[in-house]
Amino acid sequence: MDQKPKLTEKQYYVVFAFVTSLFMLWGIAITMGDGLNKHFQNVLGVTKSQSGLVQLSIFGAYFIMGIPAGLFMKKYGYKSGVLLGLALYALGAFLFVPAAESVSFGFFRIALFVLACGLATLETVAHPFIASLGSQKSSDQRVNFGQTFNGIGAVVGPLIVSTFIFSGDDNSQSAGMDKVKLVYIAIGCVITLVAIIFSFIKVDKNLTDPHVIATDTYAIAAEEKPSSKLIHQKHFVFAAVAQLFNVAAQGGTWAFFINYGHEVLGLSDAVATNYFSISMVLMMLGRIVGTALMRYVIAPHKLLTIFAGGSILMCVIIAQGLGWVSFTALLMLNFFFSIMFPTIFSLGLKDLGKHTEQGSSFIVMGVVGGAIFPYFMGKIANTDVAASYYLPIICYTVIFFFAFLYPKLNKNAA
């Protein structure tokens, strides 16, 4: 009788714990960036469209750093890749000090870009790293376990913003800058400490190379190679486009969530940020429910079709500005787009054979959508934040048609 493979092995426990923590650390930083959108509007007087450039700094760093981080990892290994990511993360956090002193939005964006280069490096390294810590039959389980902690980080990030940045009665520029400065000094110190501790952790140099990991999701027999070039794989091309629009919608939705709570419901920034944290809990719930449904009830592309339709409906309700009814729809929007990134990713990589690794790089680069879209949503939000949520409907429509047409795009699909 075959035994189920363990989540990880005893010799990897310490390394596994540290790598899992990385998922939480970049989840915290990403959602804190969305909280900073509203804070910069308050203390620096930038418009909503200008504050959307925060996402350009963050997601632009992901787009630029993704491939170099992968090459660095390939040459120097997992441990060096993690240490590089943590170093950039800490450096970006400490750059918030001179940015606050100069009261410069441009300087803050530079600091965020450096910090996000660290996040992109950590994310590039952590997925194959955690997948390698044990049997390849359980590698998907380890990645999903790590993603759970990423979700926890996404909940914690807004709570940090609401507790330490939006707290207090003094909303002057100097007080606002001091709050940001102190929070990011603390973050920089924590990340530095994590890097120092991790530098003393012994990492097995014989771990599977990230470029030959075969997880249950993407494993394809060597002989099963597509006859045509990657660009001729219709399901992959559509997946890359869908992923760009998916991250675009996510970036815009999160960037103006706090504005919506403040302007439509009259909530304080701190309370609206707490609701943002609740929406992250709903996203975690959506992933849990979606994963269970895909495993036991419904094919992934069919569930993605349903969830994309649900997202379109939520956006229509949100755009009406109907008080708590619309705000509840805004919360539920996180539930519906919860499965989109991993599902689009996995559907796009199916049956690519020798092109799988290259295809993965192109789909990951779709995060650049999150760098561009918030600016245009912000242009509309400058006048009517509720109406700006009509714009993501375009994104979810693209995802809907990708999912609906998937069996025709990929003839091997069940």
From TrEMBL:
Keyword Chloroplast: no
Alphabetized Pfam families for the sequence: MFS_1
Tagged with keyword Cell membrane: yes
Protein's cellular compartments: Cell inner membrane
Gene Ontology terms for molecular function: fucose:proton symporter activity
Domain of life per record: Bacteria
Transmembrane segments: 12-33, 53-73, 80-100, 106-126, 147-167, 182-201, 236-257, 277-296, 303-323, 329-349, 361-377, 389-406
Keywords: Cell membrane, Membrane, Transmembrane, Transmembrane helix
Name of the featured protein: L-fucose:H+ symporter permease
